């Protein structure tokens, strides 16, 4: 059965967006389509209904494709805990660690599992839309590659190269990618797609014509810059991802700490989606002190990030805020940091260390990983979340998945702010405690509906600006 590989000339070229949009566009055309990413390196993950853990982006792509998300869609997930070490999730379950030097040697088993997952998807769908990682032109990594050209060769997949024209150098990046591949890999390139374009397309046209003339690759189209499309990202929390609040309305300011090993940064998306709530991702203690709400997000390295928090001066801000009755929220790793003590022979191997002591009890890390999708009712409002952690605090349940003492709250659950009524009511209380005039608007957008609409806008953009027919056609010729 056919497939296609969406590869990027750089990280962040928009592969995930294109893959998501294609999944929806082909699903709308009545095709049985599935997303696939052989290996994702990300700390933004999600728990599927069968308890397996995959990248957030692939989870969303499966929803866009109208299929139940599962570990087949992202068989290998590497969760970096330092620059030289990653936790391995294989077919949705923890499978040890990988160190930087082992990338060439320790990955044969991962490649086999990834190819087997692709074959299974390909056998049961009309079309598999594969997303590459980074750039396929990293020829130094080509030997053990199973996510870019290695996968393309395995499945004989035609490749669509996506280039980000917003950052500049898109033509050179496309030409350079074409030029660096060996003949066998180059033969699989089927065309390119220019992404994030703003301005007059007729100015770009001669550049594309020259590029096509030189490398013989056709253009699949030019996708415009889509300002109002955000997506469950695989990348770490980064400043500038969130649009500032511009209206002359009361605002609730939220400072989210950019921990070095932030995990599940997507927890902030529903807060950002709330009209009048202004989320700033920061490492500045002054911004953390001034905000109405301070959020410590999840972390893939709780003890190391707690040390960083102390060194940054933000731990002092947390203490001052708690003493002054100003709101603080810790999510998962952030909650663990707020507890009295942490006993961690697993993630950091540090043993017993002091926490910030804002919430009670000791967090105990165990080798087995908690993966779940719990639900609760808080003040009559339904709350749903998901759990991905080794460390278990003594949560007293005074808050879903956690505890509240005064204005300091912790939860082990990710994704809880996607529960619309709960989000509004909790933020209303935060605004009151912080002395902010912000109140939730009656006609607030529902988060899941907003995300669905975004997926549809992506599909519309592809149908309008890209040659989707030709992509289906070349995919059909792949085997
Ligand atoms: N998702 C998280 O924040 C995980 C917290 C911590 N690293 C743990 O495994 O327990």
TrEMBL record:
Keyword field: Cobalamin biosynthesis, Glutamine amidotransferase
Entry's PROSITE patterns? GATASE_COBBQ, GATASE_TYPE_1
Which residues carry out catalysis?
332, 414
Q: Which residues form the CobQ/CobB/MinD/ParA nucleotide binding domain?
A: 4-230
Return the protein name. Cobyric acid synthase
Residues covered by the CobB/CobQ-like glutamine amidotransferase domain: 254-421
Sorted alphabetically, the Gene Ontology BP terms of this entry are: cobalamin biosynthetic process
The cross-references to Pfam families, in alphabetical order and at most eight, read:
CbiA (PF01656), GATase_3 (PF07685)
Q: In which pathway does it act?
A: Cofactor biosynthesis; adenosylcobalamin biosynthesis
Its domain of life? Bacteria
UniProt family annotation = Belongs to the CobB/CobQ family. CobQ subfamily.
- InterPro entries xref list: Class_I_gatase-like, CobQ/CobB/MinD/ParA_Nub-bd_dom, CobQ_GATase1, CobQ_N, CobQ_synth, GATase_3, P-loop_NTPase
Q: Tell me the gene name.
A: cobQ
What are the GO MF terms of this UniProt record? ABC-type vitamin B12 transporter activity; catalytic activity
Biological function: Catalyzes amidations at positions B, D, E, and G on adenosylcobyrinic A,C-diamide. NH(2) groups are provided by glutamine, and one molecule of ATP is hydrogenolyzed for each amidation.
């Amino acid at each position: 059965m056919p497939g296609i590989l969406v590869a990027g000339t750089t990280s962040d070229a928009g592969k995930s967006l294109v893959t998501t949009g294609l999944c929806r566009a082909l699903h709308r055309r009545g095709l049985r389509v599935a997303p696939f990413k052989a290996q994702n390196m990300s700390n933004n993950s999600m728990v599927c209904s069968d308890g397996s853990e995959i990248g957030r982006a692939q989870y969303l792509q499966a929803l866009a494709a109208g299929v139940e998300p599962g570990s087949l869609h992202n068989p290998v997930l590497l969760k970096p805990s330092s620059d030289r070490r990653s936790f391995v999730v294989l077919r949705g379950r923890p499978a040890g660690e990988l160190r930087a030097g082992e990338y060439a040697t320790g990955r044969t088993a991962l490649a086999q599992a990834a190819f087997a997952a692709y074959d299974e998807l390909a056998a049961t769908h009309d079309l598999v839309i594969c997303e590459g990682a980074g750039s396929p032109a990293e020829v130094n990594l080509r030997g053990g590659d199973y996510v870019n050209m290695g996968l393309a060769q395995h499945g004989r997949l035609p490749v669509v190269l996506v280039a980000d024209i917003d950052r500049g150098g898109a033509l050179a990046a496309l030409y350079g990618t074409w030029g660096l591949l060996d003949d066998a890999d180059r033969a699989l390139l089927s065309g390119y797609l220019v992404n994030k374009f703003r301005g007059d397309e007729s100015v770009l046209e001669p550049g594309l014509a020259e590029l096509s003339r030189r490398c013989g690759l056709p253009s699949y189209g030019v996708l415009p810059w889509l300002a109002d499309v955000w997506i469950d990202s695989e990348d770490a929390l980064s400043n500038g991802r969130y649009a500032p609040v511009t209206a002359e309305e009361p605002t609730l300011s939220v400072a989210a700490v950019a921990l070095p090993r932030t995990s599940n940064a997507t927890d902030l998306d529903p807060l950002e989606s709330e009209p009048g709530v202004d989320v700033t991702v920061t490492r500045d203690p002054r911004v953390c002190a001034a905000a109405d709400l301070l959020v410590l997000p999840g972390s893939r390295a709780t003890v190391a990030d707690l040390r960083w928090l102390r060194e940054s001066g933000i731990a002092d801000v947390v203490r001052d805020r708690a003493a002054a009755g100003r709101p603080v929220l810790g999510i998962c790793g952030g909650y663990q940091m707020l507890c009295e003590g942490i006993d961690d022979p697993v993630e950091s191997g540090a043993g017993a260390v002091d926490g910030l002591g804002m919430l009670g009890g000791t967090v105990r890390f165990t080798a087995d990983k908690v993966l779940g999708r719990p639900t609760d009712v808080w003040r009559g409002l339904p709350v749903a979340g998901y759990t991905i952690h080794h460390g278990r605090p003594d949560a007293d349940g005074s808050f879903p998945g956690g505890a509240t003492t005064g204005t300091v709250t912790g939860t082990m659950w990710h994704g809880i702010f996607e529960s619309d009524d709960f989000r509004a009511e909790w933020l209303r209380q935060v605004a009151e405690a912080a002395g902010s005039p912000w109140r939730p608007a009656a006609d607030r957008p529902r988060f899941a509906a907003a995300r669905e609409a975004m997926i549809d806008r992506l599909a519309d953009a592809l149908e309008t600006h890209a040659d989707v027919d030709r992509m289906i056609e070349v995919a059909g010729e792949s085997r």
